[in-house]
Fold these 2 entries.
Entry 1:
Amino acid sequence: GKGIAVFTSGGDSQGMNAAVRAVVRMGIYLGCKVYFIKEGYQGMVDGGKYIVEANWSSVSSIIHKGGTVIGSARCMDFKERAGRLKAAKNLVDRGITNLVVIGGDGSLTGADLFRQEWSSLLEELVATKKITVDQQQKYRTLQIAGLVGSIDNDFCGTDMTIGTDSALHRIIEACDAIVSTAYSHQRTFIMEVMGRHCGYLAIVAALTSEADYVFVPESPPPDDWQKRLCDKLEQERQMGQRLNIIIVAEGAIDRNGDAITAEMIKKVVVDNLQQDTRITVLGHVQRGGNPSAFDRILGCRMGAEAVMALVEADENTEPCIISLDGNQAVRVPLMDCVKRTKAVAQAMADKKFELAVELRGKS
Ligand code: F6P
């Protein structure tokens, strides 16, 4: 059977454990040897105790846990060729030529570069007598399947990233809790939610919590947003509403690309309306806690499909992402997704916001 290793990289997200579990069990079921690489790329570079063979029971009782039990890291060593050389040696030593990468776009791009470099890394390992010519021949191709784990839902090529649904559950719970205290005191609350440069969490949170206003990066408000915001809040109060909720994405910006922060919004509300206003920054609570049923199933399906993709792959198979398309788990070329995700970032940087939304919508 093939040697497959699974690792989680970058920010953790709920549902990653379900994916790890599915990779291990589907791999073993199909006769592969499956390894954990602990602490992401750092573990691949360091080898030793960080790369361990998994068995059926090593993934028992993890499906319900948040985070990633095999650890994650943002690794600087892997960005250098010397680090990747060590990583390649560690994989060859164990006969691992298949990787399941669970992470965001940076982690997935890193995997693709590693794959492109693979034959030159093996060449160098032979030249320096770290591996044999036989090993070089036997392990000459590296196959990659990626799963997108992130609460941000910011990756083009999949409808939902693993963790987004659970993060929304956390956010909604917090919004509901805030509403009751806001109601009692007739207050206005500004809730800051995560998402980096993506407004998905903010927009869904706003729609599902009946917020009065939302600020997202992809759709910066008109220049007179302060007046529009105040008019809207005032109107709601005049209609008898006892509270106001404003959701602001952490990456919210105005039409010039300058940040719109919770503090700025608070000042506008207080100065113009004299409303009793508070800010709640949800922070990493959004990334913690147990995964939702949706994320557990998503992780399971994506993990199983990743192993099937690797088992069916031959030397000419391009690296893929396992994506959710409608309700189907499908394989899409890794580099297409990375390219499209980068195109969104570029459109945002160029302040071509409509284009960014259009490109994102195609995911
Ligand atoms: O990408 C996930 C995310 O939680 C973003 O929403 C947020 O901007 C970032 O990670 C926070 O990073 P860190 O955990 O390193 O503080």
Entry 2:
Amino acid sequence: MSGQAGSLRSAEWYAGNDRNAYIHRAWMRRGLPAHAFDGRPHIAIANTASDLTPCNAHLDEVAESVKQGVYEAGGIPLNLPVVSLGETLVRPTAMLWRNMAAMAIEEMLRANPIDGVVLLGGCDKTIPALLMGAASVDLPAVVIPGGPMLTGTFRGQPLGCGTDVWRLSEEVRAGTLSQDDFIRSESSMIRSRGHCNTMGTASTMGLVAEALGMVIPGVAGTPAPDSRLLESSHQTGRLAVEMVQAGRTPSSVLGRGSFLNAIVALAAIGGSTNAVVHLLAIAGRLGVDLRQDDFDSTGADVPLLVDLQPAGRFLMEDFHRAGGLLAVLREVQDLLDPDALTVTGEPLVGYLADAQIWDREVIRVRAEPLQPKAGIAVLYGNLAPDGAVIKPAAASEHLLQHRGRAMVFDSIEDLHARIDDPDLDVDADSVLVLRGCGPKGYPGMPEVANMPLPTKLLEQGVRDMVRICDGRMSGTAYGTVVLHVTPEAAAGGPLARLRTGDVVVLDVPNRVLAVDVDDDVLAAREPDAATADAFAAPARGWERLYVQHVTGADTGADLDFLQGSSGQQVSRESH
Ligand code: FES
Ligand code: MG
């Protein structure tokens, strides 16, 4: 692994005896011996550890295990802290910063003397941002998902992070749980290091990254405190060195088949709808032809095999114990592209022969699915000319074909101000509509689509209503919620011209989302001043850049100028 000075990218900085090579080496000699610069691979560890991203706070320990593996394989590991995004804290929504994180990661991977990268993520946006950035640089890259936290319990019952916060807070509003007990449950919610333990976006994106082929098969879903995560991290460090030697870049691993495999996995695990925008954005960086419709055509008929919250009962610790992703994929192996590769150089399907289900309650066999059709449905109509998505598996059966009068809210503030008004003109058949929450409108496309139900209806026992929004929904939420309506209201979509009282038609079996108003009448309407006033108009900074350049949810809500790859070359020296 030595004596090849000049052959690797890092050697463009370190090889030779001129003044610049001297500078590059000298400043790095803080414990690194001379042979660190003899041409061996330099592996960055793109590390989203941050005290303000509590789900990723343990990744520094993971990085130490990666380092050992890199050293053992003859490489040089280099910790590279990158922009981190904590879902629960960052305002106005972590999604506003996903593209910023991806851009910063891309630029720092390209700008530095590295030959490959290990990507450490966890909390919702972190793995998508890492994959987007790495794809646009196209250096050998491998993901280690930081893993879910262990199951916390409250009064003997398991608590699912996220999902049970929604459930318990609705119980308080419905008067079936006291405020004191609600607060008491708080200290039980987060039992350990790791990300949310439901099948929310973080769990989904870790598993989806593995289905894409970007994780050592079998690693995703390993709980964060599990010793096997550190063992896998050591192995991943070794693999990163091997990947550099093999020239195994993201563009050589990820093809259309990889994304279709990810869609199959997403459906079978009952994963988060957020994976739609993230996968579209990652594919956009690679130039892979992936469309929102592929989620419906490839995923809609895939059976739901995993009984996890929010759609089901169990949590990620149970999922891992029951056999994890490979056990699920074995059940749907016939739906997978057999040629799609993984970071190891072997096809994904090559890892399925030994996979077993150890608990058939948590992971179902194909013949006994939780639901026969689990994937995401893409709806079209005069309310969503470019599409909208719904996860039927998380919806109420009786609402999947529904007509109802719209109650329209122009912003999340408008909704909060009026939703509990006893005079609000809504009943159980009403359709709640929240607009101005798309990528441009908010900005950042917040997870507000699972609007709280009016208290007066909760008190009547109503537990679900049709809700429609151009924003996203938390992966830990549930309900009959139509999301990602495109074009969004702030981009001139017809949602901006919907009026309270219009009759909205939702027909999921026939893939329709429409308003019962003639198209020419709808087109001739002007949005109200209050509607337009609610759209964001940032004056400077990232938000301004974002609003000017963000694309619709149907193409991943990336910035238009970040789609594609700039490759790994940097042409100019810094001195
Ligand atoms: Fe980080 Fe849920 S808040 S994964
Ligand atoms: Mg989330």
